[in-house]
Amino acid sequence: MSRALEVAGRLANDAAEVITATAGREHHSGAAHKANPFDWVTDTDRTLERHTRRVLAAEFPGVPVVGEEYGADPDAHRAPYRWVVDPVDGTANYVAGFPWCAYSLALVDASGPVVGVIADPSRAQIYAAARGRGVRANGVPVRVVPRPPAGGLICAELGPDRTASFTRHATAAHAGIRSLGSSALAVTQVALGHAVAAVLEGYREWDVAGAACLAVEAGAVIVDGNGCPDPLPTDAMIVAVPGALDAVLAWWRASEV
Asked: Is 68 annotated for ligand binding?
């Protein structure tokens, strides 16, 4: 685990340097669309994922990788361990030069994330966690504080049909909603204590695996859309500090469409 954490941290530092040097500069070159005009992929996405895969193959031969740009290695989800990487989470923000994008890397086993590292280049921060070892932000330990949601911020990455209803319930209870455009950083804000909760739908494993490790190790709670504890849900994810989950889950259920 120590070696995995060290290698992941090194890769996150590499990614932070590249993202910092290139953010906002690929709008007219090196960027292309995937499924639609807002679904961006850039040379940076591809380069960072290739670099990550090369280093991991050398350092951890036989451990498969799942990545946003190049997919999953054969039998990755049946292997005892797998690496999960999103080279630039929040690519639309990155392309526009908006300061909410991240590099995310996690080592995952059958019980969920074992190691998680998030690079937050715009804030010059590397967040790292390992199972049973807590969270550090640039080397400083981090732990969430229990609190109710009133007066706090909730990071919501939701579809348009659900956003309006969820926002009405949250604001009626005096909580604020923020949409960052990066699932990894949305969950990370809970782990850091900046937000009381994050509510997500329509994400993929690589978007959230690294940040989920941070959240659990910081003392936050993760449940799926039905309210069942799950370290890495696949349908919907609610991450909350203790004391906020019940209310946020109630707003989620009340906003079902």
From this structure: yes
